[in-house]
Amino acid sequence: MKLHTNLHQIALAAALVATAGAAQAAAFGGVPDMTKLAIVEAVDGSTTATYNGAAVDNLLLISGASASSKTIGAFVISDNCDTSTLSVAWDSATGGNYRGYACDAKAGNVLGVGTGTSLVIVKRDAGGSTQGVLPIATPAKIAFMNFTSCTAVAGSPAASLNVPNYTCTGTSTYYPDAGTSDVEPAIIALSVNGGPGTLAVSGSLTTTPIFQQIIGVAVNTKLYRALQATQGLTADDKEANRPSLPSDFVTSAVAGKLTGGTTTVESKKGWGLVVADTVDTSVHKKQINICRRAIGSGTQAAAFLKFQDLGCTGGALGAFSNTTALSVVGAGTSSNATAYTSTGLVEGCLGTVNALPDTGFGAAYAIGHIGRDNDPFANGGDKGYRFVKLDGAQPEAHPNTVSGACDATAGGGDRAFAGCTDAQSGRYNYVYESTMQYNSSTPGNAAKLSLLSNMATKGFTGTQLQGNPAAVIAGVMALPTSYTGNFGALAATDVGRLYGSRVTRAANSCTPLYISK
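Given the sequence above, the corresponding structure tokens read:
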């Protein structure tokens, strides 16, 4: 008995020393040199990090949805980091697969870690939402950015959401601490989305809806200008002159039901349905280029739900893929539909099509699906694509600054609401509820559960979203459950009114959007 007591006291003392040591661990104290970071895996598979050999206080490895990668990055930077101590790493010039963040935690951070403690978060986008569900539900190791491969970006730019100061190309496999998905795990697990059919769970899985993700229908800029000319709109990038596409055309395109023309044969079942031949005399000869996500992507799962009725009732318009070369003029038999493993690669596809040279038949045209929190003008550049309206509705959830109670407006048409954006009111309905998953049985997660819970339940309220960049705010809405009271009765300055949604799918992507607040 005495031996047991002594051993217990020794173990308790060791735990207290370890806890005290963690609490007193040194902050980065400046902009971290990411070449000095390392992820350390214990024998049981749990992970911690070191900086120049000393323990880092907090490490999170998050995998999943690339459509909301900017929203997750903004959460890390705006809501948790002292930005004077921020470093950002991308895996490539576009950061399409992996991103890493290191900083000292700011006062009042959402994660609830100590002010000034060191914080490292790595986000994996590669593989999309599937990687934010399956290896969380049944813990499994997947690739993450490691820091042994890091090099400083030339010129040592100040790090921000859209500007890395390090490039880290190497990967190692670890257990993810948490995952994100554009739609709930049950949808991702379906066979049409590359899953096993039903979700297998080992341990205790927590799934929390975190925000509403607005998904945009994007077209390359040259098609955007042709649509503007066809619809009598000024050729600029103002919201008032954003052209619209009808849902039936988008469905026909992504389901492979349209036909491109050839150099000698015109198709009357292609781009000519939305672009006038007086605007583009070669429109009936053009290839239908589709820049889509790969199976397993939550964005692709949402596209299947919205436009092909795949995932709920099992509609007849099945998945379509045809990896012919991107081009101006087609072969006349089918569309090109190339699948990409991340949002950044879809952006690249649209940009590539936009840059194709004129072969005597004018510009090439392409269409794709991208999370609306992505910015085609990031860092003052131009990625060669734009977001269009869908059935006349704007794909926007930017801060609602229009006065009114989101009620009908006299003389304004059947859905001309004053006081809310088209996404807030549900008029723009290409909107799904993103979720976050974590599993208490993942090695090392017991020590991280409070951080993960804080992120899931507190990280994406209107209060938190208001500090994000404008392009990010345009693409996400706080859930109706995040604010109190009826939307129309909220004060004009209330964060629920500015950044929240009044519609919901009630955590079920097969439920139509309905007004809940």
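The chain has a mean pLDDT of 88. Try to locate this feature in the token string yourself.
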